[in-house]
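Project standup — Tuesday

K.O.: blocked on the structure for the chain from last sprint. Re-posting the sequence here as requested.
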Amino acid sequence: MKDGAFKILHFITKKDLMHTTVTPKQEEMINMIMTGKSITEIAHNLEVSRPTIYEWKELETVQARYNLLLKHVKEEVENGIAALYRKAVKAIEECLESENVHIKFKAAVHLLDNLKKKNIGETDPVEIVRSNALVPMDFSAAMGNFDRSYFEKRIEDLGLIEEKI
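H.V.: unblocked you, prediction finished:
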C-alpha cells in the first residue's frame, strides 16, 4: 500500500471499514483514481480490462470506499489549511516574487479549489443500495417505490449486512 493511502487509512474507524470492504485490486484502483490516473493507466497497472474498471466503479462498496477516503482527505486538507495558515501566507508572498514558484503555487491552489468543490457522497454501501432501490413511480412523483427484492439481492450479492434499527 502506498504511503498516502496508509495515512488516510489511519484516520478511518473500524465502523467505517465494516461496510466498505473492497478487494485489494479495487483498493488500488480507488487510490489511483484519487491520484488522478486515467482509466487506461489504472487498467494497465492492475492488469485488468477497462470495462472491469468501469464495472468496479459502479459497485456500491467501491463507491462507498471512495467517498470515505475522499471525506478523510478533505478533512485532512481542511485541518492542514487551518494549521498552516501562516506558512501559506508566507508561501504566497514568496510565490509572487518568483515565476517558477508561482507556477507551483497556481497548481496547488487549483488542486485545493477542486477538492473543495468535490461533493462527498454516501460512505455506507447499504445506504447506496437503499437509494438505488428507489424506483420512481413516474417522472413527476417526488417519492418512488422501494424495490425490496432488488435491495435484498444486492445486499446479499455484496456480502453486506443490513443493520436493523
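K.O.: great, moving the ticket to review. Residues 125-157 form one domain. The two ends are 36 Å apart (CA to CA).
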